[in-house]
Amino acid sequence: MSLLSLRSVTLSYGAPPLLDGIDLDLDPGERVCLLGRNGTGKSTLLRLIDGSIEPDAGEVRRAAGVRIARLAQEAPVAEDASVLDVVADGLGALGALVGEYYRLSHRLANAPAAGSAAEPGLDSRPDAADLARLAAIQQRLEAEGGWEIEQRAERVITRLGLAAGTRYATLSGGLRRRVALARALVGDPDLLLLDEPTNHLDIETIEWLEDFLLGQRAALLFVTHDRRFLRRLATRILELDRGALTDWPGDYDNYLRRRDERLHAEALERARFDKRLADEEVWIRQGIKA
User: How far apart (Å, rounded) are the C-alpha atoms in residues 38 and 195?
Assistant: First the structure.
């Protein structure tokens, strides 16, 4: 059963439409690369798939309970949060608990011991309510497998060259995009949408990302200009051009071969048409002279 299906989907921000009656099925375990020139609507299609926008016409069907995560071109805005807070936001309720656990732990660890002078802005001693809340969170995380999720988040954050406790607002644009990538990766979705995931990554990190994605169960739909990344991951190619979506089964090299064959066939057909047209013009001129 498909995770997602599009039927006769049209979307336009003017003329011509970005998506013109397209059909698409995405199945579990697929790794699909979406190709197309800049401005053809690739990012728009990803936003439509995850429900951020709605089509003007047509039908978008998502499997019941399907979980979709998307890495957008734009970095998230979270000025007062840590890197871990932003990443944990992609983990749902358990992620929020992980973030709260670390905030409480940090606050309690920095509270002065009884009898010592408190630093400005800190309570003089650990708060009993905070201690009770911390214990309750720890118990729930243990019961629901939250620590496995936390360890996954920590691993991804570290492999992307980030520090969990760093304040997000202090990061450069490139590092903020790494945080956004980490948030998309850690949630264990059914369908992962990645828009230029290798931007701002060095070669070693790109190789780690390739291995990570190859080891995931999630279906993958991604946009990239990185041909090595594309060749290693894609099991199917989609091409978006002038509102039409063409499906090319197989890997990138198969796509190149079949596309060249189609372009050659189209060129031959145009040549035959032009010859027929020229022959008819000659016949018409000869008829007029007669």
Answer: 12
Domain, as residue range, for 39: 4-67+189-250
The conformational region for residue 162 under phi > 0 = left, psi -120 to 50 = alpha, else beta, is: beta
Distances in Å between the alpha carbon of 263 and those of 234, 260, 269, 270, 290? 22, 5, 10, 10, 41
**φ, ψ (nearest 5 deg) of residue 13:** -115, 30
> What is the distance between the alpha carbons of residues 105 and 100, in angstroms, rounded to a whole number?
8
Overall size of the chain counted in residues: 290
Residues 147 and 81 in one domain: yes
Dihedral pair phi/psi, residue 26, rounded to 5°: -120, 125
Same domain, 80 and 147: yes
Confidence of residue 86 (pLDDT cuts 50, 70, 90): confident
Integer distance in angstroms from the first to the last C-alpha of the chain?
A: 67
Sheet-wide strand order for 191-195: 68-71, 191-195, 219-223, 31-35, 236-241, 244-249
**Strand, coil or helix: what is 167?**
strand
CATH of the domain at 32: 3.40.50.300
**Tokens (6 digits) for 92:** 């749902």
In whole angstroms, what is the distance from residue 81 CA to residue 99 CA? 10
Classify residue 31 by burial, with Cβ atoms within 10 Å: 0-12, 13-18, 19+.
Answer: buried
The reported pLDDT for the residue numbered 112 is: 64
Pair of tokens at residue 146: 């939250």
Show the tokens assigned to 80: 């007062």
pLDDT digits (tens, 9 = 90+) for 55-65: 999 999 999 99
Higher pLDDT pick, 151 / 60: 60
Q: For strands 236-241 and 244-249, give the pairing.
A: antiparallel
159 and 124 share one domain: yes
Q: Are residues 118 and 172 in the same domain?
A: yes
What is the chain's mean pLDDT, rounded?
86
In this prediction the pTM is 0.80
